[in-house]
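Filed under: proteins

Residues; backbone shape codes:
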Amino acid sequence: MGKLRMFIAFGLAMVSAGAIVWCTVAARPVPQVARAAEPAVPDPWELLGPNDEPRVDHDRQATTEVKVAGAGPGDLRAVPEGRLDERQRQVKVTIVHRLRMNEVDKLVEVLRQGSSFPDGIRRFTDEGFGAIKVDGTVLAPTTRPAPTLTTKAGVTTAEFQVTLLRQFAPGALMTLDFNAPSAKPLLVQQRTVSLLPGAWTVLQSESIKPDLEEPDHLQFRVGSYLVRVTLAQDSYGFPDAMEENDFSWTAGLGVLTAIALVAFLARSLGMAWWNRLHNRELVLGLVLIAPLVFLPLLAPSWRPLAYVALFLAVPALTARHASRALPTSPPWTTRDMLVVTGLGCLVGIGMLSWSWLHQQLPGQTLLIGAVVAAVAAAAAAVVFSVDLGVRVVIVRLAVLAAEAAIGLLALALWGRALLTGVYPPDSIRLVLALGWAMIPIAAIAVATKTWTRTAVVGALLVSLLVQRWPTEWLDAGSWDMPSTSSSNLPMIGILPLDPLVRGVLGLLLLAFALLVLRLRRLGGSLAALDHPATHATVIVCLMVLYLTPRGSTTFTAVNVALPQLSITSIAAWVTARWLLVRPHPAVVEPTSAEEHRQLVRAALHKRLLLISEQELYRIGRGKLGAGELSMAEFDTQRLELEAALHEHGRHPETALATAAGCTPWHNGVHAFVISLLLSTPFVLVFGWPSGADLSSFVFDSRYLLTLPAFGFLFGYFYPRIRGTQPMTKALHLMAAALVTELSAYLPTLFEPDVGVADKVQVTAIVVGEVALVCIGLGLYWEWRIMHLAGEPWARVRNIRSVRSLATPLLAVVIAAGTTAATSAAGQTVDRILKGDQVSSSDSP
């Protein structure tokens, strides 16, 4: 290339870059125009015209009376069964708001019409008089009777009543928060509050000066500010010293579970994995980045650093790890680059249209800048590549440069809008999803030992789903303005589902998927059954599926809420280790289908000889006594049977305890599918999973996979499960799964406020589901082994025998009892099964 052409090429490239810079500098801040919303219902007290000044009618008088009393049987009739605790104190708080005004007041006519009632009763009382919050366990929803109007001597009184039911532990304090009214304009400047504490005593009061202060009556005036009153129970005295129990079973189990998970995870990778330098570097990098990701829990102002760590640092680290772990570079071609830049160009055009619609740049300016940038970039590419002499290559490079220029312009304008605080929120999620997609792309490449286009496309789709459902991306309104607060975000536990939380949940799901892929890779041969890494990987998967957070707790010196880990995770670990008994019984594994067939036929022949020997001894007693059979004939038949048995060996037959010539992964998948089908009907009891996005939906549906995961363990390690026959192995599996499943309900089942009938119903549901899945899986496995051997199932389970029907009949009876228990189960059983937690506070 000559100097002149080089000068021209670089000059055209500078023109393209200058057009992009010029458009970015000329861009104006996007005006913060609120998106169109549905017309709001006018406030019932909004009586001012558009040109009137806000004012308060001084003839109005507002009073609030709060009465605290014990809740009687009639008051507690609406409380769901199982929520009451006889050891605690049930309280009824009655709040009466009264508003007195002249009969000619315009508000009187508005209240008489009641256009926004009954739905607006709560809004009127909370915003007009100020919401009153009472802590304690909520026994029933707040109730509000219809407001009453009374007119006498030219004065109209409007009365609003609110009733709350709360439950307090012995010695617990009751806090009443009198919030400031939020109505505009105010109904009154000040309101008078009368508190009748009943069997409680005023312990603390803030921001008040009492007009009347007596043991059973406190009266004060309050304006537009918060007032807090704390009550103490009269029947409880505060001891001078409290004995504190420093040990917490919840925290102890949580720490034990975390240590076990980390230990098994490290063991599941194997020493060969840890011996590689780039693997150790990956772990070290993730350990250093993890504190930055979780830093917002301690310092919310550092949230941007967490986003940089999760969506930039982690993808860069995984990409570097993949480049070092794989022997070859990605085989991307020019066509792949054209497709990628073409998709980026389409997204860029969409973003440029957003910039034009929201007046970031005038349409003419935007069009000229985009055309100049694209044409100059394409011309520069042509000048740079003209020496190649291949027309197809030159055209492709020109198109690639033009698409890249459009994308860079859109990215620059998007960054300018981001700096001014007004941008399409879905564009942020799109950029974050594209950055996060590098993590699964690199992970799949390392797991499969190659780079594939299918994995890239799948990872991109999964990344978009992790950040939200696709339907939200099609909402045109979501490309208008950013969300001003996170209060409207869906929650998972105590965390709002913002992009950071979604990314962390996506990483957890990806790690679980990689563990399953590792099981598939290890399960390609029977040698995996005795591999320590395989055992550890299966236990980690089981523990993760049974890791059910219930509530939250805090460490002593750190004010950070942490999930309380359920004991079921530890129970899954213990029972899985018990199932994989050591030392393992000696089993001759067939290496082919024909060998499996011969082993099963030999086992059937041996079983026939054993039955014949038992039958000879059974009928021999009668025939010998009756003289129908001589001793010599008896000894001849006995010796013939013993010789035949000696030829086949007297060791226990284990043909039905082998892998049937299949790989562990193949057996595990079959058992998982059958267990999933058998447990699907119980979705009617536990409910369908729900979630705001892919991550929360998958986390909510884990309970559907717990028993199938035990089924996978049964199939994967079938030769190593306790027992020598399919049904004995299934019964051992049932015992392990039953202990694990019931461990989640043990604390609730021991509560005294739950009736015996409810406990029996819950136990019947859990036992019925576990028995149906495990026994059904055992029967299927027995049929499958015989089917693979080409033998009829009737040779090991005779349908005409009542004894052989005992096991399936037991499953049918338990399933029928479960169905009856499910139909009879009320709200208590539903709350126990689903683990509902009652909120500790509610706003009336």
In short: The longest strand covers residues 89-102. The chain has a mean pLDDT of 78. The chain has four domains: 1-28+331-421, 61-233, 249-325+423-522, 586-837. The chain has 27 helices and 17 strands.
